[in-house]
Amino acid sequence: MKFLTFKGGIHPPEFKEPTAHLPIEKAWEPKTVSIPLQQHIGAPCEAIVKVGDRVTVGQKIGEAKGFVSANVHSSVSGDVKKIEPRPAAGGGDVLSVIIESDGLNEIDPSIKPKAPIEELSSKDIIEIIKEAGIVGMGGAAFPTHVKLSPPPEKKIDTIILNGAECEPYLTADHRLMLESPEDIIYGLRAMMKAVNVEKAYIGIEKNKPDAIEAMKKAAANNSNIEVIGLETKYPQGAEKQLIWACTNREVPSGGLPMEVGVIVNNVGTAAQVAKTLKTGLPLIDRITTISGKGIKTPKNLLLKIGVLLSEIIEQCDGYNGEPAKIILGGPMMGLAQYTDEVSLTKGSSGILVFTEEEAKFPDEKPCIRCGKCVEICPAYLQPLHISNFSRNNMMEHAEKYRALDCIECGSCSFICPSKIPLLQAIRLSKRYIIAKKRKQDK
Question: What sequence ranges are listed for the domain 4Fe-4S ferredoxin-type (predicted)?
């Protein structure tokens, strides 16, 4: 098999060994869940339950109030105890529905299996996905029904599933491809019908040969679905880089994948589509990797949305000493948390607990103009210049150097011999530029 890739990128240590060979375990039933009403890109949901209500598994408790938004459902049955702001994975507080489980796991009466794909129309599939609150489960949490509803003038001819899982430590998608490959194919077929495309690719890095074989076997009867082997390189799973590797199409600066006729989704998203069609259940749980030297027993767990990180870590036999850093997601693009009283959300692909040794960041030194950050940037940017402009509050210059094209992969910060936090400065410039544009639009 020929392994494809993109120009640039880095090769960080993988650190996948602790969990790569561990089967997915079903987690303990939580006694209480705190379910944020915004755990997706876009507008927050509006609570449609009130304190004192009894809810059931799969019942809608938060309704999307915008096109780019996603419904939220209860992951347990029990009583709504509070609706209040709680610490959120992305920082700050988010209005959350706190439910005390009754331990019965009573399924909502509205939950019923859907018709087979062949009996569903494109519109039916998109509406089912929308109602189920399905979002990108690789971490971005972009509402899936929006991705599957491109403007009429944008002709989509290809869907790509991201099975690269290029972030160090994370193995949730790897295990999913090994344990439920048929569901991934079923969900992919549904998405293909939703946007009326005849061709699909599943991209998987070559450090997962068992997953490549499992997915090839599952797709054997579908001649229009091709499993693509990818070089092991970060950020191989980024949308634009994955599109280039699989199709040789280049998404233009400032453009979206649909500009080149492609939609990209995660393998976890496809599996959830299959689960929703087969059982009727919305997105109420997900597979998450819990790893790092700060965890006593690393695991891949099937967890209910809304369970607190502290409870999850307890299921992994607790902390291994005093944690120095807790990260939701992977070490490259994940977000550090200031408390373990944060809830698991739809996009939480990993929980990493680092010791002082792992978390320590070297002292910053002056830039030596080596050009390594430019050489490896997968977006063909000049990170050192954008970072300098940002640090000197010269945001207009940062914009001219295409700061908004940064995919925030962190490769530049990783490769920098002077250990300059380039990504953090670029992120700051992006936030400033976006805020300025929104102000101008208003």
Answer: 357-389, 397-426
pLDDT tens by residue, 144-187: 999 999 999 999 999 999 999 999 999 999 999 999 999 999 99
In this predicted model, what pLDDT tens digit does every residue of 296-325 receive, in sequence order? 999 999 999 999 999 999 999 999 999 999
45 in a known ligand binding site: no
Beta bridge partner(s), residue 238: none
377 annotated among ligand-binding-site residues: yes
- Which distant-in-sequence residues (6+ apart) come within 8 Å of 315 by Cβ? 27, 28, 299, 301
Per-residue pLDDT at 220: 97
Does 416 show up as a binding residue in the annotation? yes
Binding residue per annotation — 316? no
Report whether 59 contacts 72 (CB < 8 A): no
The confidence score (pLDDT) of residue 90 equals: 84
In this prediction, residue 361 has a pLDDT band, given cuts at 50, 70 and 90, of: confident
Is 112-279 in CATH node 3.40.920.10? no
Q: Nearest Cα to 350, choosing from 336, 325, 330, 320?
A: 330
* 3-state secondary structure at position 375: helix
406 labelled binding-site residue = yes
Q: How is 4-66 classified by DSSP, letter by letter? A: B--SS-B------HHHHTPPPEEPPPPSEEEEES--SSSSPEEE---TT-EE-BT-EEEEE-S
Give helix 172-179 / helix 181-195 axis angle, nearest 10°.
90
Q: Which two tokens stand for residue 432?
A: 């400033």
DSSP code of residue 404: G
Contact in structure between 99 and 79 (CB atoms under 8 Å): yes
Residue 409 among known ligand-binding residues? yes
> According to the annotation, is 367 in a ligand binding site?
yes
From-to residues of CATH 3.40.50.11540 in the chain: 112-279
